[in-house]
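Example record

One chain of 105 residues, shown exactly as stored in the release files.
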Amino acid sequence: MERCYSTAPRRGQAREIGAHVRGDRSAPATEPAANPVAEPESDVLTYTVAEAAWLARVSVWSYYRGLKEGKLPGRKVRGQWRVSRRQLHRFLDGEGGGADAAEPS
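Predicted structure tokens for this chain:
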């Protein structure tokens, strides 16, 4: 008697598609929730580095490097980096707004 514990097909055998699926576990299709980070006119005043990196479409570590080099907008507040919504959107629109840019009143 030959025992086979692997679910992978043996050489020369085709694997049955969907043999191990017991039901559709996917989430029902719904409308995506509104993302206040993606909307420039939302009530959000500052972003975290992760949110700013997501909007800039770069990695979080790349954004940190840009902050430390002064190439990207942001400042430290009580030991944590914060990015002004207004400065970030100006920077992304190509109007400058790096770390040395002053926030208008």
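Notes: Residues 60-69 form the longest helix (10 residues).
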